[in-house]
Amino acid sequence: MKTILITGAGSGLGAELAKQWANEGNHIVLVGRTKQKLEGVQRSIKNGSSSIYTCDISDSKQVAELMEALEKNETVVDLLVNNAGVGAFGALEEIPIEDIHQVLDTNVKGTIFLTQALLKTLKKGGGRVMNIISTAGLKGKNHESVYVASKYAVRGFTESLWKELEDTNASATAVYMGGMDTPFWSDTDHVKDSSRLKSPSEKAKQIIHLDEGQKEIFIDR
Ligand SMILES: NC(=O)c1ccc[n+]([C@@H]2O[C@H](COP(=O)([O-])OP(=O)(O)OC[C@H]3O[C@@H](n4cnc5c(N)ncnc54)[C@H](OP(=O)(O)O)[C@@H]3O)[C@@H](O)[C@H]2O)c1
Hints:
Structural class: alpha/beta
Shape: globular
Number of strands: 7
Domain Ketoreductase: 2-188
Strand order of the largest sheet: 3-2-1-4-5-6-7
Pfam families: adh_short
CATH topology: Rossmann fold
CATH class: Alpha Beta
Bound molecules: NADP nicotinamide-adenine-dinucleotide phosphate
CATH superfamily: NAD(P)-binding Rossmann-like Domain
GO molecular function: oxidoreductase activity
Number of helices: 6
Protein name: Short-chain dehydrogenase
Keywords: Oxidoreductase
Helix content: 40-55%
Number of domains: 1
Largest sheet: 7 strands, parallel
């Protein structure tokens, strides 16, 4: 049994990974900003166990509080899944400044804060960081400049971790996938009909199936 901390576990891919990994008997630490969403996912976990921690990962103070709470509860994380992410789409000159901050603060800084905070534990226990990127971390896309920039940053961060962790017990995995039908698209018309995209349940299944601790997992390219 592993203890797997998943950020953004209240919906979409994070929720599906949580349910499927829990089903395999792992303990899942569900992290997100909205308690009710995390509680909903916790209720849907039939096998395995889970715990809930609310945290805005873009806020380093909240991340430090999360670490304190985990320590207090003697929760030792084996696998950190940096999954929480937000988008901002459209012509660059039309993207509000606050949205640019939110995308970079969540996708990039949030991933870095969580990884930095847990690295000592992961190194000690032979643990791993899994960063959920996107095909947006592989190629530029029209009207996705800010989102793509954030995902390239996470890719660069992950590839640098490979070097930094070379002589340690810890490791890092980058995961690349294309569109999924999740609430990610609910505040934008960038994707006209998200119901045509693949289900997050299917993508979670593929990730878990393909995951053998390797450096990269390509679900789509
Ligand atoms: N959907 C796609 O087409 C697609 C394709 C490729 C890659 N991805 C990536 O897959 C990951 C999961 O996305 P998804 O599609 O499953 O979207 P989603 O359903 O919107 O899930 C994202 C989760 O992140 C949480 N979150 C957002 N900001 C946060 C913050 N500051 N602190 C903590 N939690 C935060 C949200 O919950 P709260 O608001 O309650 O915090 C939400 O549950 C993202 O990294 C996304 O970039 C998505």
